[in-house]
Structure formats: C-alpha cells, structure tokens
Amino acid sequence: MSSIARLRPALLLLLLQFCLSVLSPALAISTGSVDGHTINGRIKIPVAIGALGKISNVKVILNGGQNVTFLRPDGYFSFHNVPAGTHLIEVSATGYFFSPVRVDVSARFPGKVQAALTENRRGLTELVWEPLREEYYYEIREPFSIMSLVKSPMGLMIGFMLVVVFLMPKLMENMDPEEMQRAQEEMRSQGVPSLANFLQPAATARSG
Amino acid sequence: MGTMLRGFLLLLSLLSITAPAFSLYEDQVGLADWHQKYIGKVKDAVFHTQKTGRKRVVVSTEENVIASLDLRHGEIFWRHVLGPNDVIDRIDIAMGKYVITLSSEGSILRAWNLPDGQMVWEAFLQGPHSSKSSLLVPASLKVDKDNVILAFGKGCLHAVSGIHGEILWKKDLEAESFEIQHMIQASGSDLIHLVGFVGSSRFDSYTIDAKRGELLKHDSAAIPGGYSGQASLVSSSTLVVMDSAGSTVTTISFQDGKVTFSQTPVSTLIEDFVGKAKLLALKLEGVFAVKTGTHTTFVRVTVEGKLEVVDKINHATAVSDVLEISENRQAFAFVHSRSNGIDLTVKLGADWNHDLLKESIKMDQERGSVQKVYINNYIRTDRSHGFRALIVMEDHSLLLVQQGAVVWSREDALASVIDVKTSELPVEKKGVSVAKVEESLFEWLQGHVLKLKGTLMLASPDDMAAIQSLRLKASGKSKMTRDHNGFRKLLIVLTKAGKVFALHTGDGRIVWSRLLNSLRQSETCENPTGLNLFPWHVPHHHALDENPSALVVSRCGPSDDALGLLSFVDTYTGKELSSSSLDHSVVQVIPLPFMDSTEQRLHLLIDASGQAHLYPKTSDALSVFRPELSNVYWYSVEAETGIIKGYALKEKASDDYSFDTRSIWSIVFPSESEKIIKTSTRKLNEVVHTQAKVVADQDAMFKYISKNLLFVATVAPKASGDIGSSTPEESWLIVYLIDTITGRILHRMTHHGAQGPVEAVVSENWVIYHYFNLRAHKYEMSVIEIYDQSRADNKDVWKLILGKHNLTSPVSSYSRPEIMTRSQSYFFTHSVKSIAVTSTAKGITSKQLLIGTVGDQVLALDKRFLDPRRSVNPTQAEKEEGIIPLTDSLPIIPQSYITHALKVEGLRGIETVPAKLESTTLIFAYGVDLFFTRFAPSRTYDSLTEDFSYALLLLTIVALVAAIFITWILSEKKELRDKWR
Description:
The complex is a heterodimer.
Chain A: H1 2-23, E1 29-31, E2 37-43, E3 59-62, E4 67-70, E5 76-82, E6 85-92, E7 96-97, E8 101-105, E9 114-117, E10 123-124, E11 128-129, E12 133-134, H2 146-151, H3 153-174, H4 177-190, H5 195-207
Parallel strand pairs in A: 2-11
Antiparallel strand pairs in A: 1-2, 2-5, 3-4, 3-6, 6-8, 7-12, 8-9, 9-10
Chain B: H1 2-15, E1 34-36, E2 42-48, E3 56-61, E4 65-70, E5 76-81, E6 88-94, E7 98-103, E8 108-113, E9 119-124, E10 134-136, E11 142-143, E12 146-153, E13 156-161, E14 167-172, E15 178-185, E16 191-198, E17 202-209, E18 215-222, E19 231-235, E20 238-242, E21 248-253, E22 260-265, H2 266-269, E23 277-284, E24 287-292, E25 295-301, E26 307-313, E27 317-319, E28 323-326, E29 329-337, E30 341-348, E31 355-362, E32 370-379, E33 385-393, E34 398-402, E35 405-410, E36 417-424, H3 434-437, H4 441-455, H5 461-472, E37 489-495, E38 499-504, E39 510-515, E40 529-537, E41 549-555, E42 563-570, E43 576-585, E44 588-595, E45 601-606, E46 612-615, H6 619-625, E47 633-638, E48 643-653, E49 658-668, E50 675-681, E51 692-695, E52 699-702, E53 709-715, E54 732-739, E55 745-752, E56 754-763, E57 766-773, E58 778-788, H7 797-802, E59 819-828, E60 832-837, E61 848-853, E62 858-862, H8 876-881, E63 909-914, E64 921-926, E65 930-935, H9 950-980
Antiparallel strand pairs in B: 1-65, 2-3, 3-4, 4-5, 6-7, 7-8, 8-9, 10-12, 11-12, 12-13, 13-14, 15-16, 16-17, 17-18, 19-20, 20-21, 21-22, 23-24, 24-25, 25-26, 27-29, 28-29, 29-30, 30-31, 32-33, 33-34, 34-35, 36-37, 37-38, 38-39, 40-41, 41-42, 42-43, 44-45, 45-46, 46-49, 47-48, 48-49, 50-53, 51-52, ...
C-alpha cells in the first residue's frame, strides 16, 4: 500500500511532464551539436486499440531500415543524428495502414519542418500524423442468409429443379395448343425415355 | 424459354466472379499455416524474480532482440527487434520496473516497461568519438528522489534520470581512444570509478562524483608488458589484466590515487603451461579465472596482493557472473558439458572448498558445449538457497535448469536460418490401413453435421469450439507420411549454429534436429559457417526403401578462401551419414542436372582460384559428367570491382575430379558511374507451362524463356548510400538483362533519379524489381517482359503448312534471337525486404508475387497488376482477357496479406515450394520468426475447399431423390385419373 502511495506523485509528475511536452512545439527538426539533426514527431493512433495494434508494437522506420525506433506511450518518437537531406519515414503497425512521410531536413533553416504524406501528397505543418485507414486482415463471415444458401451449388441444383418442375408446365400452357400437340407427337415418335418407362420394365422383371 | 436459359447462365456467371485470391476467415487461422516465435542466441540475461508478480528473465540476443521471457515456461511475454544498425550493447533492470538497454555503441539509452514492453523513454547520448560502452544502474544512488542511470559511450559519461530519461549531467573525459573496462560504484558512497585503457599500454582511472558529475580524480600509468584487452576486476580497487603475449598476469591496484603494478608469469601459477592464456570475465571478490586450453584455473588475490591458485578444472567450462545472495555473500556457477549432459556447480565466493550446489543434468540430445550461464537464486521453504541457471548451449538453444532437471528449453537456432530445402516424407506402408487412422463413419458424419450447423449459423458456442478443434486436428495433417496432394513435406533448415532441423509442414514441429559435428568449432576449423543446402540423393519412385539425403556445404571461416566442408545428412532420421573436409575453398556450388548410377546428384564446386571440382568423387560420376563437359558454363559477379565474368570448363582435366576453367566473356561496368548492388536469376527448378502468350486480338507473343537470364542492377556510386544522402540529379539506376552463356546484354534500361536498395525477382520471361524513386520520393516497382521476336512469324498459317517455321529448332543461347521487351512502372507504398514468386508443380496456375514488406508482413500481389500491357482505358477485348486498367500505384489489399495479422519479425527470406496439387504452393517465410502457409494463387480450382459441406451435398441429393419419387407418384396418379376419365 505504501509503495502505491509513493508511486502516485511520480505518476503525477509524469503526467505533468507529458502535458508540458504536448504544449511545447517540440515537433520539429532541431540541430544536434555534432553533425546530425534530430527529427521529432508524433503518431496518433485512434484510442480504440484492439487486440491487434498495441502501441508498444509500433515501429517507426527511417529510410527503409537505416534507423528503427519505437513510440513512447504518448505517441512521440525521435530520430537522432540524421544528416540533412530528404528522408522517408514509415510506420509499421499491425492493423493500420500508414502512408510513408517525406521529411526535408534542411541544413540552412534548422528547425523548419517540411513534411508530406507520400500517398496523397498532403502536407504536414507539424510532424504529427495518423493512419490513413484501418486494416482488417480477415474476410468477414456473412451472417446466414437465404441468398447464400441459394447461391451454393446445392441451392442452384434445387432451384433449377424447381424451375423445371413448376415453371416449365406454365410455359407449356402458354404455348399454342396445336404446336404443343405437334411437339408431343414428335416426342412420342422419338420415344423419349421417361422415368416411368425406365422403371417399369425393372418392376415387371422383378415381379415376373 | 431461350431468354430464361440465358438469364440463368448469366446468373451463374455472376455468381462465379471471384473475390481476392487470398482471403481467410478469422476462424481459419492455424488450419493451413503455423507461426513460431524465436529470439536468437542469448548474449546477455538479467533475472527479475521479485516475490510478487510473475518471474521473468530479460534477454538480449545476437539477432538484436530484446525479450522478456516467462521463467516458468520459457514463453515470450514481449519482444522487440531493434534495427540492424542499433546493436544492443548492455541491458539491465532499473527500479524494478524498467528494462534499460544501451545500444548503438552507447549512444541510445532506452527504458522499456517491464510488464508489457512499452518503451517509456529514450535518451540520445552524444559524444565526440566512438568507444566501448558501459552501463551502470546503481541501486541506491539518488539525485532529487530520482534514480540515476550511468551510461558510458562515445567517450562521455552520462547520468540519466531513471524516471523520464533526461540527461542530468554529462562529462566528457577528453581522452582519445579511452576504452572503458569497468564502471564501479564505491560501496556506500556517491563516487563512481571508471577504469579502462588507452591503446594497449596505458591504464587510466577516473573518479567522478555521481551527483554532480564532477571529475574528482584522474590517474594514469603505463602498464608494463602491454595489455591484451582482457581484464578482470577482483575488488573495487584492484584489476587483473593479461598482457599482450598472454603469458603474464598484471595486478593493478589503484587505491588512494596511487597506481601500483605487480606482474606474475602465468607459468608460476599453472604448471606445464604453454601457449596463450585468457582471462575470463568474472566479477568475483578476490578471485579471477585464467583459461589455458581446456583448463580453467581460479586464482585468489590476497589482501597483500599475492596470487594463489584455489582450484583447477580440466574441462571446457562456462562461468557465470557473480550473484549477491545476501550481505557479503557471493555465489557463482560454472557449468561444463559431459557426453550426455551437463554438470552444474555453484560455489560460494569466500568459501572455496564448499559447494553450494552440485548437480548433473541429463539431456536427451546433443547440444554441444556450454557457452554461457546465468544464475539466479530463490529461497526454498526450509530457508536455504536454491539456484536456477539459464544456460546457452553451442547450438544456440536456451535451457533453464532447476533442481537437477531441465525445466524448459528453447530451440533458438531457428532464429538464424541460412538455407531451406524440402524433402518428401516416406510413402505410407502397405498394411497400415487408412481407415484405422481416419475416424469412424459415424464420427465423420457427426463432424459434417456440426459443420453444416456452423454454415447455417445454428451452432451454439460449444458447437463452434468443437468445430474449431475438429478443424485444427483435421485430416491428419501432421502425419509422417506422404499425402496425395503433396502438402505434407519436411522442411530441412540449416542454421547459423551449425544445427540442421527438419520441420513438418503440417504443424511446424521439429521432427529431428542435429548439431553437425563437422560444423562445430575445432582446432583445424576455427569458425565454421554453413553456406547452402542441396538435395543430394532423392530416391527414384521404385527405390522408396532408401532414405533421401541432403548435402550441407560450409566453410571454415567467413572469407572466400577458407577451406570447404561437406556433410551428408539423412533427411528422414537426421543422421550425419558422412562428412569430409575439402582441400580447397568453396565459392560457388553448381548443382548439375545429372545423376550417377546410385542416384546421387552431381555437384560442381568452384574454388577461389577458379578451379572446378566434381562431387561425388566416383568414376561413375565422372563418366556421366565427361560427355557434358562442354555444356557447363557459369558466371561470377565481383561487386567490388564491377566485373561479371562468364566461364567454361577446359577439356583437359588437371586431375581426375578437378577441372581447369577458362574465361569466355566479361562485362566491366565503369566504376566511376556504376556500382553493382543487386543480381538475381531464375529459380533452377521453375517450370514454365506455356511458351506463348495469347493477346487480345487473336494474336500470340512468344515468351523468351531462358534459364540463363541474369538480372543486374547498378546505381551511381554517389547514390549507393541510404535514402536522403543524394539528390535526384546525381543518382540513377541502370538495369541489365544478361545471358550468362554468351555474355550478351539482352536489355539495358536507365531510371534517372532512382536509387537502391533494389530487390528483384526473375521468373518465366519477366523480371520485377523494387527501388526508390527520388523525384517522386516514393518506392517504385517495375516489370520487364521479354518476348522472342524470331518466333513471332510462326503465326503465319501458310508458313506452317509449307514447313517454313522454326518451331522445332532448339532454343539455344547461341542462336541470338531477336527479342522485344516491354516494361512499365508503378508506385508501391512500402519498402521491401524480400520478393519471391509463387511456384506450382506444372506452372499452369497464374503467378502471384510475395512481397516481404518493411513491417515484416508478406503481401500477395497478383502478377496481373504488373503487366506492361496495362493501359488507362483497356479495350473490350483486353478487358475480357483480364487486363486491369492502369493505375499509378499498386493496390495493397489487407486481406491479401498471407501472414494475416501475424508478423515474421526480422524477415529475411521467402521460399516457395510447389505442392503436388497444381493450384497450390507452399510458402515458408523466415527471419527471427518462422511462418508457413499453403497458398492457392488462383484459388483452389482443382479441389474442394476445406469448409465444403458434404452434409449439405448429401442432404440435397436426398431431397432431389425424394422429389423425383414424389413427382413420379403424382404423375402416375394423374395419368391414372386421366385414364379413368
């Protein structure tokens, strides 16, 4: 219990620190003392963090793997010792699609941010961005519907049968009676094997 | 009637329109795929075993992973793979809640939350020059209620706040090339001692006030006899170093501002000492350890500074760091391996003659020698001390030993896969009935009724669970026999540890594993590294009683001219059949398409001097090979000098199995404007089904299909660095397609304003490569397709009739056909780690690209998206052919990630193997993790899917038969009624 009580002030201090850092315009490119610059930025991930995208598993990648860093709990990240030039920052987070960001680190105007999302060419005034969209990796199972059953091969079989059984006679009725008769004659003369004819010999054979 | 039929057909065709080729329902995860997580060989470990909470051990590994493991089961709580340029130097735990890592030569200090692995803060430490790094987390040192973490790196000492990672103070030691050896906190005070060396002759000691960062004292003295880089701290004011010759021990005492030396030859401590002695890094109060050959000698430094031998162990031994078990009581452990196990001894530092613990632990398999050991203690119920030891073995496996038994073990060699090949499983023996293995008919039907309930959404949660478990154990996918579809195979995997594994494709379990004797360190072979795996002996259909075997090619060191090693492994049992050390080096291995009479594959090994050696060395193999001598060509790529050379064999052999070679062509790239960064060839075993491609207007194009196609990418030397280091004006990428037999450049194309890294894949008659476009500042993918123009005339029917066609003429590299290329480029969002292409048994199924993205996922992308004939407005005929309208970027559809929601951390390669079933290909992706799945590029058109409902089919048939009988009876009745009328 006492340990928790001791922890509290520290936590408060931590929170205060974060609030301050949010207020201060820290999201810029600052010159380092040696040869490189520092890129500071922030990634906003929607609050609804599911089982997939934990903020602790988000990676921020500079120039395709030259530097890799991770996010602080508040979404901030920084790259140190970056030479002047135009760089590319990618974000790898399971469950989200991030556009890569091009960042110009200028040697002449230190502290000036020039960044843009490469996917839609939207400029960023501050180096703060969020995912373009969520990614869902699985097909969603559609709830049971009559249509899905009808669409299945078996459903189609039954459907076809129903059409033949019920619609065909209707169509036949609409036909010209004379024509119908002629057709029936034709069929008889050709001797279309009907199921009854087919089964009867077998039945007689069995009885006999 | 006719319109109705047509409508019906239209309905059918509408229903058959396909969704994306790869898509998975969430409940299908784990049916055809498996995923395994690894960490790599542990190089440092810190225990966290407080009374409350879960016990864990935090480790850093050679694969640059930081991970927190469950001490009870060895599972991973959390894990992070750091960037390749950000090597972890030190780890520690601060304040009982943060894991501290110091990486990038001591310039990045990070704190991770211990329970969930969330990064809490990151501090960047700067300094004037690079140096060794060191980390100290003092337990009791506080500045304004804040814990201080001391990190030394880049020649500066930094004090960092433990709570939010601010740099409290920084002290530049202003000493060029000061190599820190130890950072010591004087007990009970705020003083920090830094001891280290400058060059190999000067000893330096600094005393710094940890609260304010003031340098209080600096002593420096030249060491007599030089310094070898090995040092051991025996007390807070005494350091023992080994001299550069490895024959004299120097004791350095740096108390009270005075530095005094005393030298003792190793030979006075150890009798019959010859050779070089090594100091072990042991931090035990008053004792240091000297390693000579296989012996380890422990030497005590008395208060007066005298040295006396306390113990001598005659085995290869690993010694742990010192563990403080209570006030002023220190324990440490040493472990050595026996023939079938290991011996663990824990001793108390002060009382040498008494063992706290002596255990011998049996192990069920050969794991080689012990490399590292870390110990941790716990209080038993009778208040005595118990010890657990974390042991790293030669095969990179990690064991936790407690109470004389191995509690858990991890096979972390699998995090460093070098090469993968597949082997077929044995055929099912006759007499073992399939029915016995399959469940009874009733159970089968029950399962299908359950499935039917599932599809009709009538199943209760219990039923759903039953369905899931049924699916997971479905159809004996982990059986040890060959299956009809060729889904079950063995993945033979060669790892950096020199251990070969066989993994079952069904569930990913390890069927066997073998630490190859030839790949273990020995006196003749200091640093053996595995290179490649090849199928050596694949029995013919009629000789299935023989076991297949694989060839492991390796060499004795990292350089090209190190001597080679061959090892032959039985792929069913894992037995090492034989091994041989070669008298030449191995630069290249060419598997030849020939076999000798015992069905051993012929291989040609090229050494550094350009000689070719034939294996197996039998006269039989030689007689097979001799007639083919003039048909063997190969090439070499010298990336540093920018030369690609083609070779052929000389007819005259220098000895029976070795052949001299002659250079037949060479291509020299101008070094001032071009630098080779990538070469790629077609897979040797790829099968191409159709030689021609039918295009929209009833026309055909003939593919230029050559097994000897080499793709080469060069960039401007200025643009060979990272992105951001060059401007678009000074960078270009040039790609070449080269015939490797004649050296003919088939095609050359320049991309201005583009740079590497380039990833490429060659298949059939096309190449796809990925690079960075500096002008658009986006990644791009391009495709080049090559067509054979000389055969285009064959379309003329008259020529065919008159026999004036060249269809029967053999395809040869020497025929120099007219070729035509087509290409197109598209934007691609992500950077790419690896590209592969699906391969199927007959090559009929359309291809999909497998792209390993920077986020360690594998994306399947239909080759139709990379078709040079795509245009903005395709004609009707082209649309029917399946040409997709042109877009400037390639689509990324989340459902087509074959790794779905998983990541293959540290992805390095993707291997595809055809299954027997034409529609299906097997995919194995490896990095720190392993992932395997089955993939159908154009859906499973030749088999029913797993969730096909047989019960529904049966039901339909029953319903149809019933309907037939009912209608029959009805019609009979009607007929009867008509007759009576």
